[in-house]
Amino acid sequence: MIQKILISQPRPITERNPYTDMEARYGVKFDFRPLIHVEGLDAHEFRQQRINPLDYSAVLLNSRLGADHYFRLCEELRVQVPDSMHYYCISEAVANYLQKYIQYRKRKVFFSEHNNFADLLPTMFRRPNEKYLMVMSDVHNDNTINMFAENNIIVKPAVMYKTVATKWPENEPFDYDMIVLFTPTGVASIRKNFPDWVQGETVIGCFGQNTLAAAKEAGLSVQVAAPTPECTSITTAIERYLEQQLS
Asked: Which of 13, 56, 75, 132 would disulfide-bridge 155, Cβ 3.0–4.6 Å?
């Protein structure tokens, strides 16, 4: 019987959320514990990519986290970001966040209104001499880079931060009836923290095809998955599974 469920993400900000409703309805307890965290590359690690930020006239940012690590690394590398630098952002929220680091009105800042870099192609076409550097995590896909390449825009990927396993406290048990995973790195974190752990009757839930593939490759049996045509969210998939267990 499912009673204790690990959600490997931070707890929702608001108390009114699907997890709280499921706790009341099914008598289960959700434990929110991220299995991974982000660490920035240090200057030595970054230099191994043989990238000089000053060789580029524009930076592509897909998150506020990316902006943080770009300016942090530039500072560690003692690189003075020029006033002429252009910024292409995945959203207005990321663009506005740049005010933490730059005089917004004095720079060239562009952003997508639909959270899609493809929106910025017309702007980029008008600047054929621009040289682009894209801030990325070590865990990423190349779809965006490939999209730019298909449009004859060369973008250099620059890994500036990495996703790593979070160490589980030695004195805390790992005794969940269900574990819900959201990234391939989360799957790897279980194997790293608990190399002798055996799934047994523990139910595994996965969100995303990459996570599902990583779980299966790690030898895990997956009972709950999303998105699917029937369950577009992981909370819907969990609730459907709990409902089936009661019937």
From this structure: 132
